[in-house]
Design brief:
The protein is built from 4 helices and no strands. It is an all-alpha fold. The termini are far apart.
């Protein structure tokens, strides 16, 4: 079952969103759904957290293992 959601976007942003959807060959609704699902994906969140932690320690890895 799907539900309808109403959001307000300023005109310029909506135009950009429509252009991006058209370039990708999809609809605005499908694009918003895809991006939202990606944002709520726990594996993605965990992955990005891991990258941030790795970046904090990047200096150590360069020192220890070189470039």
């Amino acid at each position: 079952m799907s539900r309808h959601v109403t959001i307000r976007l300023d005109e310029e942003f909506h135009d950009r969103l429509k252009a991006r959807a058209a370039a990708l060959g999809t609809t605005v609704s499908a694009l918003i759904t895809e991006v939202t699902e990606r944002e709520l994906d726990q594996d993605r969140t965990d992955f990005l957290t891991g990258i941030e932690e790795f970046a904090v320690h990047w200096g150590y890895f360069q020192e220890r293992f070189g470039n």
